[in-house]
């Protein structure tokens, strides 16, 4: 489900319905130069391709590059990952008065607070 130009209450209600029924939910909007996008994908599983790191034998090479791990682009491995997304209601209900939240607020985009 994709929503734009909806009120906050409508977005929260539809996200709760989607989350309960394991339906992926996206919402977003733009206000001049500012905009937002939110995705609730529930439990999302995906596969990520990782390049294997080749081990360097000590003593074979000299110099500062010897300690750096070298990537072998010919060998890759597939890693299965799982991410659990939060609901819109939870994302909007963050208590910003605590010490941990104050530290997080410095890394949070100002657009989040415009949405509030």
Radius of gyration: 22 Å
The first-level CATH class is given as Alpha Beta
Quickly give the structural class. alpha+beta
Low-confidence stretches: none
Number of H/I helices? 4
How much of the sequence is in beta strands?
A: 35-45%
GO molecular function: ubiquitin-like modifier activating enzyme activity
Protein name: SUMO-activating enzyme subunit 1
InterPro entries: Ubiquitin-activating_enz
Can you give a write-up of this model?
GO terms for molecular function: ubiquitin-like modifier activating enzyme activity. This is SUMO-activating enzyme subunit 1. InterPro entries: Ubiquitin-activating_enz. With 116 residues, this protein is α+β, with helices and mostly antiparallel strands. The protein has a single domain (2-55, 74-96, 109-113), classed as NAD(P)-binding Rossmann-like Domain (Rossmann fold). 27% of the residues lie in helices and 38% in strands. It has helices at residues 8-20, 88-92, 99-105, 110-115; strands at residues 2-4, 25-31, 34-40, 43-54, 70-84. A 3-stranded mixed beta sheet has the order 1-2-3. A two-stranded antiparallel ribbon has the order 4-5. The radius of gyration is 22 Å and the shape is extended.
């Amino acid at each position: 489900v994709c929503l734009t130009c909806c009120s906050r209450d409508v977005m929260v209600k539809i996200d709760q319905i989607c989350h309960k029924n394991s339906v992926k939910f996206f919402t977003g909007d733009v206000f001049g130069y500012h905009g937002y996008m939110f995705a609730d994908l529930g439990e999302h599983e995906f596969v990520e391709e990782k390049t294997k790191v080749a081990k360097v034998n000590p003593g074979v090479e000299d110099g500062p590059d010897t300690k750096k791990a070298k990537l072998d682009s010919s060998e890759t491995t597939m890693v299965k990952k799982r991410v659990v997304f939060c609901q819109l209601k939870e994302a909007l209900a963050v208590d910003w008065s605590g010490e941990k939240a104050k530290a997080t607020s410095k890394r949070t985009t100002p657009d989040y607070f415009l949405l509030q």
